[in-house]
Amino acid sequence: MAPIGHRRWAIAEGYIPGQSLSQEHALVSHEAVCLLNAGDRDAHVAITLYFKDRDPTGPYRVTVGARRTLHLRFNDLTDPAPVPRDTDFSSVIESSEPIVVQHTRLDSRHPNIALMSTVGYCEA
Amino acid sequence: MAPIGHRRWAIAEGYIPGQSLSQEHALVSHEAVCLLNAGDRDAHVAITLYFKDRDPTGPYRVTVGARRTLHLRFNDLTDPAPVPRDTDFSSVIESSEPIVVQHTRLDSRHPNIALMSTVGYCEA
Amino acid sequence: MAPIGHRRWAIAEGYIPGQSLSQEHALVSHEAVCLLNAGDRDAHVAITLYFKDRDPTGPYRVTVGARRTLHLRFNDLTDPAPVPRDTDFSSVIESSEPIVVQHTRLDSRHPNIALMSTVGYCEA
Amino acid sequence: MAPIGHRRWAIAEGYIPGQSLSQEHALVSHEAVCLLNAGDRDAHVAITLYFKDRDPTGPYRVTVGARRTLHLRFNDLTDPAPVPRDTDFSSVIESSEPIVVQHTRLDSRHPNIALMSTVGYCEA
Hints:
mainly beta, 8 strands, homotetramer
């Protein structure tokens, strides 16, 4: 399939709640970014995180295989540094190939979960 | 009315929770895509699903009549294969006519529902 | 202020739950569209609704004053016909002036509310 | 990093619930706008609020430092006037530098929170 998407994305919202009522993996509070690579070449992706009152950290590097999707939790990023909890951040996502990026948060601080999602901003 | 929309869309987020507390149709956990065809010709739509660690499946074929909308649940897709539950996926949606695509999830794993929605990414 | 926005928008998702646990106005289940007219001329807006298996209805006509916003509930539309509950629909929104359109649903079928929101699709 | 974003944004949806069950800062009902400035110069931002039946108020002025993000709660804006609760509004956000804007609401009127989020509309 012809590739679809852009190479440069940003998500202004970012926040990982420090608490979860459940430790079941699917229901732990998380902030995720879904990366779709519909093209025929692997996409090498670099993520940079921005904060309120300190310098950016990154790049965090991941690969999304050709014709694959990766639903990446910011919770799981550790290199070069774990993502702080209960802290506002934003992200810029740069890819070697066109990809499509969508942002989702599951918040399970309370007995019932809350969800939100939006397509990222991409540079036209 | 003049057609509105694009012919090529992508939704990077996709996940059907395997559990629902209610079996009432409106409240079963589902992942849906709303397809609006405001034009005067039927839109023939092909959906391809992308996964983390196996090849894409599809196309799933649906028709959206002229001047009609179709709110399609991924839960209901069965040909060429049912959509696996509790599994991350993405979708690419290709249409013979301009359409508008919006993504929605209702999550009813817990006693109270959670909703999320976003317009799909379209190729400019 | 210089106007901002577009004249032609679409929202593919639409559904008004027939039930609400609360009859308090702010908490009745509703489907809403927020219309911002930041320009210096009144915006005359026509909304057309699309359904799964019958012809479109409309136009529903509203005016958004210059430098004003209107948060319109589909629940409140009655002319030329009320919007059916528990029924999938989509909408196309056409304005005489540039406006910005955002879609929101509050679902209060259950003891706790669920929210979703997304910017509409606009014709570039 | 090269700047990413636009200088002119709008968010048609806006509403701060007057009630919260929790007074814990993270869980107070709020309407927020996340502003990412990935560029190398401070961004001077002016926010104007629009209402249903009175003139706009503003500009509210904030600065987002170079390579910083600011998650701003409309609840916290006081100059030139606090933002009324339980009142529909919209916002236009103008920046001296390219930024990326995302809108989020946390609604904690009820025992369990509801979330929604969407990227703002930007002038192409």
